[in-house]
Each structure stands twice: as structure tokens, then as C-alpha cells.
Specification:
Length: 298
């Protein structure tokens, strides 16, 4: 593999920090608010860049003020941008409580109509390609059909959850979180052993490799039928927003470098944990040297 492409969503995150999350119909006072770029696609691209690989990001924004903020942020990261423009930039409203738990409402904006036709002449070969499901599934299917013609490794985060058979079966590695893995496998996950069983079901059903992200419990990989569990790196979490995206980006960059799934899992586990120690997605993502320093101590 020669490089990493990220195809997916990009939006502005409006984050409200409060002592606790509101109940239905309740108003709570926020202690702070933040305005940062986000979207699973852009998040993964930043995570890749900060962990040492320059990715290309393909996405769509609106012709508006938020787009200008996002582009200025992304230009400061080591990312090759292939950005198209539509009617509105996507927006995510994120409520975060002091424990780190969050509630998110997303307006897709231009993410909802991004198409392969927005990128005429695009050619992707010998690449690791990252997908998420915040852009139309048809767009993902169209890209996957094109990617069949060249040697690529496709890593798909099935989030927000949708069990599109074509997308799932044409991915080389699926990276669901615990709740998504339960839906894909059709069983509950209450323990690490349950996660092992779920990974077997998912692998048998979709004929690919699977990583299950278990949050504070760590992560598990079923790669070519070999299952390994990786304990979480302990941190003081304040905001879990984007941690799963950070995991995917860090895993991809280390896998491009080493082609070793175990080393990539250890690397991604630490990256995702560090991503929970600050508010927001982009600002909290660690750099490669931070991760390597911790790996050296373990």
C-alpha cells in the first residue's frame, strides 16, 4: 500500500459542556462551548495526518461561513484536500457532560448529497481507503465498485449504523463499536468473551476482518480468523467525541507503515484513549510522538 484516502463527511461541531446531559424537555446550563470542525471523515483524516501519514481527504462543504472555518483548520493539518461545494455545510450539535458521555444531533448538509460524480477522473490504486456512513450509501457503493479495479484495502466504520450488505461485504476490515457490533452480529455483548463470539459471527456473515471498539474496555480484532483482545489505555476521559474516528485513523496509518494488525491495534488503542482527554475531536487527537512515547513505556 502506498497511501491513505479518506472518503466521507466533514462538518462543524458545536459543543456544549455541562455537568450533566439534559432529560427530554429539560434545559441545562452549559459551562463552556466550543466550535470545531468535525465529521467522521474529516476526523479520520486528521487522525491519520497527526499519526504520521499524509492522507487525501475527499468531501463536500457548503458555500458558507462554516466552510471557511473548516478549510482554515484543515490547511493547518498535513492533509491533501479534494473539497467540493454544495448548498450547506453539515452541522453537529454535541452535548457533553462532565463524565465524558455525550448526545449528538447531526444535520448532514452537503454530506447528504456528495456523489462520486463530484470527483470526476479520480483514481485510487494501492491505497488504504477509509469510509464511514455519514455520506449516502449509494456514494460509498459507487466508490467501492470503482475500487474493485485496483488493489486497495477498504476499512469501513459502519457508523451511523446501516446494514447495507454491499458496503459491508465489500469492506476488508469492519470497525464497529460495541452497539454496532451487537446489531451486525445479532447478539448482546456484555463481556470480552461475548465480543469474541460476535466477531466470529460478523466474520462469517460478511467474509471480512473485524475490529470491535469497546470504549473504556479496550478493543478486539478478528484478523484472518485469529482473535486478539487489547486492553484499554487508562486516562481521565472528559469527552469521547471522535475517539472512534481517531482509532480508525491511527490504525490505518500504523497499518500502512507496518502491515502488522497487532502493532496497529496497540497504537490505535492509545491514540483513541488520548483523544478523550480534551474537548472536541480535532483538538484532542494526539500526534505520533505522543503515542510512541507511551508505547515505549509499556
Amino acid at each position: 500500500m502506498k497511501d491513505i484516502k479518506v472518503i466521507g463527511s466533514v462538518n462543524i461541531d458545536i459543543i456544549m459542556s455541562s455537568q450533566r446531559l439534559p432529560s427530554t424537555g429539560e434545559t441545562v446550563k452549559a459551562d463552556k462551548y466550543y466550535l470545531y470542525p468535525g465529521g467522521k471523515g474529516a476526523n479520520q483524516a486528521v487522525a491519520v495526518a497527526r499519526t504520521g501519514v499524509r492522507p487525501e481527504f475527499l468531501g463536500k462543504l457548503g458555500n458558507d461561513y462554516f466552510a471557511e472555518i473548516i478549510i482554515n483548520y484543515l490547511k493547518r493539518e498535513n492533509i491533501e484536500l479534494s473539497i467540493k461545494y454544495g448548498y450547506d455545510t453539515g452541522i453537529a450539535m454535541i452535548n457533553v457532560e462532565s463524565s465524558g458521555r455525550n448526545m449528538i444531533t447531526v444535520y448532514p448538509g452537503s454530506n447528504g448529497n456528495v456523489s462520486i460524480d463530484d470527483f470526476p477522473g479520480v483514481k485510487i490504486k494501492d491505497s488504504i481507503v477509509l469510509f464511514q456512513q455519514e455520506i449516502p450509501l449509494k456514494t460509498i457503493r459507487d466508490f467501492m465498485e470503482m475500487l474493485k479495479e485496483s488493489k486497495n484495502i477498504i476499512i469501513t466504520d459502519p457508523s451511523p449504523y446501516n446494514d447495507d450488505i454491499y458496503v459491508l461485504q465489500n469492506s476488508d476490515i469492519l470497525t464497529p463499536n460495541q452497539s454496532e457490533a451487537q446489531l451486525l452480529a445479532g447478539c448482546e455483548i456484555k463481556s470480552i468473551d461475548d465480543a469474541r463470539k460476535a466477531s466470529i459471527r460478523i466474520r462469517e456473515k460478511y467474509k471480512n476482518n473485524v475490529i470491535i471498539k469497546l470504549g473504556s474496555k479496550g478493543s478486539l480484532i478478528n484478523y484472518n480468523g485469529e482473535i486478539k483482545y487489547f486492553k484499554a489505555y487508562s486516562v481521565n476521559a472528559v469527552d469521547t467525541t471522535g475517539a472512534g474516528d481517531c482509532f480508525n485513523g491511527a490504525f490505518a496509518s500504523e497499518f500502512l507503515r507496518t502491515e502488522n494488525p497487532d502493532k496497529s491495534m496497540e497504537f490505535a488503542n492509545i491514540a483513541a484513549a488520548l483523544a478523550t482527554t480534551e474537548y472536541g475531536a480535532f483538538p484532542s487527537f494526539p500526534y505520533r510522538n505522543q503515542i510512541i512515547s507511551i508505547l515505549g513505556d509499556n
